[in-house]
UniProtKB/TrEMBL annotation:
This protein's encoding gene: dcd
Protein's recorded name: dCTP deaminase, dUMP-forming
Keywords: Hydrolase, Nucleotide metabolism, Nucleotide-binding
Active site (catalytic residues): E121 (proton donor/acceptor)
Record-annotated site: Important for bifunctional activity: G108, F109
Catalytic reaction list: dCTP + 2 H2O = dUMP + NH4(+) + diphosphate
Higher taxonomy: Bacteria, Bacillati, Bacillota, Clostridia, Lachnospirales
Length: 173
């Protein structure tokens, strides 16, 4: 079951934390999150799963930044989120999708107990100008049946910024 916008609001500050929170961003069954003012791009044309891949930082100016097609950009939400009872899910807004802008290419499924900022995997099919602080994606919450354990630690738990892939750590085991 997906929580309604009113249920999200009801659990705000208890089982669901979104900071900063703006009641005007509540939708019928989701909450809009906004894009922070920076991006990361990978420096190398070929990426290696077993190695840390170097990145460069791009600051998004107030008058916008033009995304190039066929290039992966990593951004993050302005909002810190945390949940102790519901499964968080992240999707791009339909308005961004209609521009050919994909906001969260794969990893939209969160874990109960995840706390941090969401790293956004941004990809476009044609040039698109983006702006800092734009409401770019939405978070929604599923209820869960059965016993569960909270996500407590991991590569991306309690992050404070954009997180490039840390898959190389999986090979260190």
């Amino acid at each position: 079951m997906i929580l309604s916008g009113q249920e999200i609001k009801k659990h705000m500050g208890k089982e669901i934390i979104i900071e900063p929170f703006d009641e005007k961003r509540i939708n019928p069954n989701s909450y809009n999150l906004s894009l922070a003012g920076e991006l990361l791009v990978y420096d190398n044309h070929v990426l290696d799963m077993k190695e840390p891949n170097p990145v460069s930082r791009i600051i998004i100016p107030e008058d916008g930044f033009l995304l190039e097609p066929n290039r992966l950009y990593l951004g993050r939400t302005n909002e810190y989120t945390s949940t102790s009872r519901y499964v968080p899910m992240l999707e791009g807004r339909s308005s961004t999708g209609r521009l050919g802008l994909f906001i969260h290419v794969t990893a939209g499924f969160g874990d109960i107990g995840f706390s941090g900022y969401w790293t956004l995997e941004i990809f476009c099919v044609q040039p698109v100008r983006i702006y800092p602080n734009v409401e770019i994606c939405q978070i929604y919450y599923h209820d869960i049946d059965g016993e569960y354990e909270l996500y407590k630690s991991g590569k991306y738990q309690n992050n404070t910024g954009i997180q490039p892939s840390l898959m190389y750590k999986d090979f260190e085991k």
